[in-house]
Amino acid sequence: MATLSLEDGRLWYEETGEGRPLVFVHGGWMNGRSWEPQVERFADEYRVVTLDVRGHGRTGATDTDRYSIDLFTDDLEALLEHLELEDPILGGLSLGSMVVQEYLHRHPSRASAAVLAGAIRSMPPVDLPQGIKPLLSPTPALTSSLAMTGPTATFQSLLWSIRSVTGEPWLSVDPSVRATALEAVGDVSRTEFRKVFEALYRYEPSSLSAVETPTLVVHGDQEALPVRRQGDDLADEVAGGRQRTLANAGHLVNQDRPAAFNETTASFLERVGAT
C-alpha cells in the first residue's frame, strides 16, 4: 500500500492493475480489504484503487476532532488529484456510497460511472421531521456503550436495533463475511468509532437531481427494508439511475454474492461505455 499525506494525518491506499480508473470506497468501520473480490475480478482490465477512510484500517486516527461525509469526500478528491485520475468509475458501499453521492453532487458529470452498494442516504435510514434529528442524537448513549463494551459490541447493538424493526439478518447472510466485518470493527478505536458514527448521523443528503453520471444501485434481498427504500429513491432521483437486487445477500452485498455482484457491475459498465 501507499500513503497520501493529509494536513492532519495520512491516507492509506492501494493500486492494482492498469487501465481506466476504478475507485472503491468501503463502508463504515470496515476497510479497503472489503473490496478484495472486486479487486481480483477487475484488476486485469482496470486500474483499481482502494483506500482506508479516516478512522479505519491502516489510515487509522487523524488529528481532527470531527469527521463528516464532506471531509471524507475532500479526501477522495485529494486522492484522485494525487493519482491524476480523470473520469473515474466510483464504487461505494454504505458509508462509501454516501461519499460517492457527495462527490457526484459536487461533480455531476465528472465520473464515468458509479456503482452504489448497500446504498444509504441518511442514518437512521428514515425520514425525520426537520429539526428533530439533532434532538434525538444517540451519541451520549453510544459513547457510554463504547466506554463499557467497546466498538465490536456497540456495532452489534446497532445492527440489532435495525434488525428488531426488519426481522432480517441484514448485515450479511454469510457467517464468514460477518465475522470478517466484526474483526474490522474491532480494529477501530473507541474515539474513531464515535467520530465515524457522528459523521454518518449528521449527514444530510445532497440533491442528486442534476447528476449525469450513469449510476447503478445494488442491494441484497436481505437488506434492511428502510435502506432498500432509500436505495430505490436514490435510483429514481439520479437521471438514468438503475437498481438491481441480488438474491441471498445482505448489506455487504459485494461480499455475500461476489460473483453476481461483479457480473452485474461488469455488465453495467459495458452497457454505459465505461470499459
UniProtKB/TrEMBL annotation:
<protein>
    <submittedName>
        <fullName>Alpha/beta hydrolase</fullName>
    </submittedName>
</protein>
<dbReference type="GO" id="GO:0016020">
    <property type="term" value="C:membrane"/>
</dbReference>
<keyword id="KW-0378">Hydrolase</keyword>
<dbReference type="InterPro" id="IPR050266">
    <property type="entry name" value="AB_hydrolase_sf"/>
</dbReference>
<dbReference type="InterPro" id="IPR000073">
    <property type="entry name" value="AB_hydrolase_1"/>
</dbReference>
<dbReference type="GO" id="GO:0016787">
    <property type="term" value="F:hydrolase activity"/>
</dbReference>
<dbReference type="InterPro" id="IPR029058">
    <property type="entry name" value="AB_hydrolase_fold"/>
</dbReference>
<feature type="domain" description="AB hydrolase-1">
    <location>
        <begin position="22"/>
        <end position="263"/>
    </location>
</feature>
<dbReference type="Pfam" id="PF12697">
    <property type="entry name" value="Abhydrolase_6"/>
</dbReference>
